[in-house]
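Weekly structure sync, notes
Attendees: PL (lead), two postdocs, one rotation student
Agenda item 3: pending single-chain targets
PL asked that the sequence for the first pending target be pasted directly into the notes so everyone works from the same version. It is reproduced below exactly as submitted, 236 residues in total.
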Amino acid sequence: MSKEELKRAAAAQALAYVENGMQLGLGTGSTAKHFVELLGERVRDGLRVIGVPTSEVTRADAERCGVPLTTLDEIDHLDLTVDGADEIDPSLNLIKGGGGALLREKIVAAASARMVVISDDSKWVDTLGRFPLPVEVIPFGLGATRHALAAAFAQAGVGGEISLRQGKDGHAFVTDGGHWIVDAHLGRIPDPPRLASLLSAIPGVVEHGLFIGLAKTVILAGSQGLRIVDRPAGRV
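Predicted structure, written out during the meeting:
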């Protein structure tokens, strides 16, 4: 199976968690797009759900597929969020934000009773950090924020290059919320919860791509088939 076929297989398995009448968080990215498309097929067959998209791209995909949408201003909780990830560790901590939607993705995931992550098995790692860690920042005072980020990384025992993400036009990439993203090339993050706490305390940081304790279940698609991993009790 190709990588896209693996992603679609994981997305199809996630439909087993969807029940009639659910309020759903709809993730962003290539794997989540498969889920939205498959969900749209179920909606056309009579499934009654309503979704909250985590990006303007996902909003457009959902509208194209006929999935009814709402916002977290109109409802205050979600039953289930299905989203992808850039990296997943054995405690089901994640790195997300490769597509730039980490802020809305985390808001939606935190408002959900359950988060199911869908991925091909290349995203499963022993330790997070090989994928650059996205950090969404306020443009104002970027130099000071970068200095504070470097200090936080040193305090957490990690280090590496911090680069401002560029858009296709060669200028700074701008998120749906109007912020910028810096990518931290750390290589290895031995204590993701500690680093997440340090990053959250920096004033110029809007949000970071460490998703700690949010994913309850991961569906991994690989050459040997599907593997479903539930978060170990008491672990983050």
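Discussion points:
- The chain is about 30% helix and 25% strand.
- The domain at 133-202 is CATH 3.30.70.260 (Alpha-Beta Plaits).
Action: rotation student to compare against the earlier draft before next sync.
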